[in-house]
Design a protein that fits this description.
It contains 2 helices and no strands. By secondary structure, the chain is mostly helical. It has one domain. Helix 1 (17-39) runs antiparallel to helix 2.
Length: 86
């Protein structure tokens, strides 16, 4: 999948479609490199595959963290809006 196929909807307030897609892509890469690690016999390649999987895990964790921040901020804004409406 190329980055050109992903578009920002500009309507997300409590989540981000592009970040969710990025998380999905990172998960696919993690699975690929973990499979490579399991199936490869070459120690040097196995080590490299593990490093790549770990790098993608870090990126996935960062995306999840950012999505949580976005959701929390939206929740706070919802509470503020609700307090004015009641």
């Amino acid at each position: 999948m190329s980055a050109g196929n992903i578009e920002c909807g500009h309507r997300c307030r409590n989540t981000c479609a592009m970040l969710k897609e990025g998380l999905k892509n990172e998960s696919i890469q993690i699975a690929y490199f973990e499979k490579m690690f399991r199936e490869c016999d070459e120690p040097e390649v196995r080590k490299f595959a593990r490093e790549l999987a770990d790098s993608h895990k870090l990126m996935a964790d960062r995306i999840v963290e950012k999505l949580n921040i976005i959701r929390n901020r939206a929740g706070i804004l919802d509470e503020i809006i609700d307090s004015y409406e009641s």
